[in-house]
Structure prediction request, 118 residues.
Amino acid sequence: QVQLVESGGGLVQPGGSLRLSCASSGSMFSINVINWYRQAPGNKRELVASITSGGSTNYADSVKGRFTISRDNAKNTVYLQMNSLKPEDTAVYYCNAVVVVGVVYDYWGQGTQVTVSS
Prediction:
């Protein structure tokens, strides 16, 4: 129903920037919420940022002021702009789509690796 493909990950030095993309096969009009999660080895998966169909955004305290989530409805794509990256940001980042059609459906991408290292 909804296919999600993340891209944009890679290796970056501390203080650098990356922009992650989440391309969806579904229209943004059909997706209520897009979330970015991340998971590092030994850590629980944590919610990094989210954006609703109405444009409301939320961020984890650890990334506020550094990360920005946005969506391009024409391209069916959500972005995560990551600035001032820290080694603690190293993780696999996953895109998650929440679709409510009577019941809640969750869709996940395959993840993209972000490594922040000097």
